[in-house]
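Page 37, top half.
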Amino acid sequence: MENIQFDYALEPSRDILCIDCKSFYASTECVLRGWDPLRTELVVMSYPSHRMDQRASGLILASSPAAKRAYGIGNVSRARDLPFPYPPSLKIVPPRMRLYMKMNQKINRIYKSYCDEENHHVYSVDESFLDVTNVLKLFQVDSPFELARMIQRDVFCQTGIYTTVGIGDNPLLAKLALDNAAKKNANMKAEWRYQDVARTIWKIPELTDFWGIGKKQAKRLNNLGIRSIDQLAHSNYFYLKERMGVIGAQLYAHSWGIDRSFLGETYEPKSHSIGHQQILPRDYDKKEELAVVIKEMADQIGTRLRKDGLKAEGLTLQLIFSKGYIDEGDRTYLKRHMTLEATAQRKDLMKVAMKMFDSLYRGQVIRAVALTADRLTRKEYQQLDLFTPIELIEQAKKVDEIVDRIRQRYGFKKLVYAHSLKEGGRAIERSSLVGGHAGGLSGLEEEKNFGKNWEKLYRL
């Protein structure tokens, strides 16, 4: 059977920019302290020690380019990956997620001054896509490369943040140009077009350097004898689809630079889930402390389900062991899934979560917990329990509704369940976090030398 071939003349060709804020969290911290984001050795660390002579044990959430070069660390590393005693040139700061969100909003307002809402897509907190096909004449430039330079200059002048830009005929080519070329170029820009596929995409050195291919996907491809993007592009499409399904077909198309999505399109997932995962501030090995955390997470999931008008018919609990810890079954984590009657009520979710916990936990040392509600539905009816009076079911619903309203109006801390006050409870502390990390000015309230940088902070 003849292999699939693509005619680039028939494919959508736009001027798409994929813009990334360079080391965003670390750069934001540097800018507001008056430090150079490219030359300062700075890391953003959860649970940092407040003294430089004490070693911290948190996660490194972001690193400046200078810190990455100096210490060989990536975007997500651990405190132990840093040399200790800490070098005098190293700056360690706690995360301030609300501040990063405000900076993100300011930068995206700049992007929107170059294109309308329909042609602007926020991909993540530090990446956005812009379709600038129809605005080049408006800004009196001859190419998207020139417009990208204007945007870079505009963002830097208004925020102090450096940006890198990938340019392509479609979002995929722009993203690949960003990740594999722009971030390495001195001018922080790269342009990949259909005619460049053979010398750009096919030359990407590792499968995992390609957008959409992680370690598991790369292993599956390796098992099929595919070890490079060049081999992927020249493999048999029908064999790939037979062995890997729709994912195989998609990867084959992507290896040729084919992406028929448009920024203005809305995507409605066929199924989704609602969950919470948190890395604990220390190792937990007491069952009663872990039980508190799991109950709190079930409460959070119930709140989110009710807010979105959803019910869950499945629940998954995962307990991840401390690094290096292996239990008697040679496992590094525990996981269980259970089905339940469609519900969004706290008591129902908590009951199932605790049932899974009791069946799994045997005294292992836990450092992270994840609880996820899946098989979501908008069913209006509820399956009644023959052994539970309907009055009690209605009463539980009313309690949850009242709790939701009070928390929404006055804040989470104004009404908490008693178990959150016990040892090991995390809900009260985490209520002030954003994205699981510190959201306020933690670590900065006592700084005395900010000068005009305080004005920058409040202008965000």
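Page 37, bottom half:
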Amino acid sequence: MTYSSEAAQEKRRSFLDPRTKLALVIVLALFVLGGLGGEMMEPIKRVLSVLPFLMLLAERQWKRFFRGLLMLGVGYGLLFVMPYLHGVLNFLALMCGGILTRFVVTIVMGEYLIATTTVSEFISAMERLHMPQAITIPMSVMFRLFPTIVEEWRAIRRAMGMRGIRLGGNRAGEVLEYQMVPMMTSSVRIGEELSASALTRGLGSPVRRTNICRIGFRVQDGILLLLCAATFASWLLELCGVKLW
């Protein structure tokens, strides 16, 4: 079995440990998406906003990198032209630009986490963190749920497109019935099947599972974890009245 060899495991190994990715997702969700710290944390937020794109470059995820960069560029572009607009257009540019600049960075980080982490690696990381199975099992199912739903959506769209049921087609009015309804029923079925598959593989067993995937902290993990810790430390110091810049 190729995956069981040490060389194959090292080749498949991600640039970051799953625990480091989770820490980055939490930090980005709190400070970039949630706006924790306000304007006083703005310099750190700019640094954090760059990290997901650097991670995508390190993993050679070119499509996700350029797609996220495009969406972020659109967001900052809207904020740039906002002062020159008036009325409703000014409000729409502010709203859409604010949403994109906050949401895109965190979404890109979450997409990077799911795309570069296998279920086995994630479960192994959760076990090392001593997370209860009530948290580990639903999150491990989630790792397969979203990619499977995307594939199912593409299959439904192709099938309906061959029958002329698509936006801009002769039967555009039937898109909701023949695309959205099958997608919702398929999502329920996919969730049930993935849950059953997880339990079949012994995720609900009281006996500790073994795995052959390799995870562990390396130099880059230490640097990024220190950055996460420094972000929280900076926020606490600012709360205490210490001016860092």
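Margin note: The mean pLDDT is 82.
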